[in-house]
């Protein structure tokens, strides 16, 4: 079964690939029916969660144009989808505030009103059980590696975590773990800001500024991964609509 949303107000210069890249942050897309002449499209998602997240983007900007996103039906959050083998969570399982941060980190423009909408949706729905389970397991895994048996990052004071993560980083480099751990969440939880990252993704109580801060952390991580690639200007969170760098745009699965 597909879950659809209707999009209008698409700029004449926007391609179907750009449209796909923009909405794929919401979750897996089944199909896109794009009518370029009318600047409208019908986008079908695999999960109802993804379609509901797409509706959150109503009023968002793409390629200099303000999008209108609507649906003929009410999409419900569904936390009972079977997990894909080997995949602890899917893009559509992430908190809406986290998805909003990914948009900002990639250079897209979302108004504070949309960010407030994301926070409100998380407050009403709560965090996906699958995502919470993954993050709590990560908290324990990183905590044991950095602090010792039965320890978690979330339970320790910041100064203790700062010292321990530096030691863990040294051990990781010796054992080659740093070459394996490419996941943003793992790296972020292993940093001195681990507690703040854990709180952002596991608690629904947050402010718009918290989303902007997480967007900057994600953007900084992307810059580090890029290495010799010329750095971008970072997360553009205000002003006119941004057009993401084609080299980095729309890669929600890395987060």
Keywords:
four-stranded antiparallel sheet, two-stranded antiparallel ribbon, 10% strand, alpha+beta, 255 residues, single chain, elongated
What are the SSEs and their pairings?
Layout: E1 3-8, H1 16-23, E2 29-35, E3 40-45, H2 48-56, E4 61-62, E5 65-66, E6 68-70, H3 96-105, H4 112-125, H5 129-147, H6 158-175, H7 177-180, H8 184-189, H9 194-202, H10 208-226
Antiparallel strand pairs: 1-3, 1-6, 2-3, 4-5
Termini separation comes to 26 Å
Largest beta-sheet details: 4 strands, antiparallel
Q: How many beta-strand elements? A: 6
Specify the structural class: alpha+beta
**Helix-strand string:** EHEEHEEEHHHHHHHH
* Low-confidence spans: 157-162, 168-182, 231-255
Mean pLDDT: 79
* 3D shape: elongated
Strand content: 5-15%
Regarding quaternary structure, what we see is: single chain
Helix-residue proportion: 40-55%
Radius of gyration: 19 Å
Physical arrangement of strands within the biggest beta sheet: 2-3-1-6
Question: How many helices in DSSP terms?
Answer: 10
Descriptive notes:
With 255 residues, this protein is of the alpha+beta class. It contains 10 helices and 6 strands. It has a 4-stranded antiparallel sheet with strand order 2-3-1-6, with helices on one face. The chain has a two-stranded antiparallel ribbon with strand order 4-5. The two termini are 26 Å apart. The C terminus is likely disordered.
């Amino acid at each position: 079964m597909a879950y659809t949303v209707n999009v209008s107000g698409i700029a004449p210069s926007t391609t179907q690939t750009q449209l796909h890249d923009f909405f794929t942050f919401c979750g897996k897309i089944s199909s896109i029916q794009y009518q370029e002449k009318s600047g409208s499209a019908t986008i079908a998602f695999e999960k109802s969660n993804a379609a509901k997240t797409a509706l959150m983007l109503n009023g968002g900007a793409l390629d200099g144009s303000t999008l209108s996103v609507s649906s003929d039906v009410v999409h419900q959050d569904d936390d009972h989808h079977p997990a894909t083998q080997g995949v602890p969570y899917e893009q559509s399982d992430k908190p809406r505030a986290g998805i909003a941060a990914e948009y900002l980190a990639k250079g897209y423009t979302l108004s504070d009103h949309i960010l407030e909408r994301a926070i409100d949706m998380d407050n009403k729905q709560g965090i996906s059980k699958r995502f919470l389970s993954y993050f709590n397991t990560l908290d324990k895994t990183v905590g044991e590696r950095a602090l010792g048996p039965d320890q978690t990052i979330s339970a320790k004071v910041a100064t203790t975590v700062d010292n321990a993560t530096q030691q863990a980083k040294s051990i990781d480099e010796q054992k080659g773990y740093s070459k394996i751990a490419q996941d943003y969440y793992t790296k972020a939880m292993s940093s001195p800001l681990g507690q703040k990252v854990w709180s952002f993704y596991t608690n629904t109580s947050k402010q718009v500024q918290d989303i902007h801060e997480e967007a900057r952390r994600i953007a900084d991580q992307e810059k580090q991964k890029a290495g010799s690639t010329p750095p971008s200007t970072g997360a553009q969170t205000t002003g006119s609509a941004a057009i993401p760098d084609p080299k980095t745009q729309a890669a929600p699965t890395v987060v």
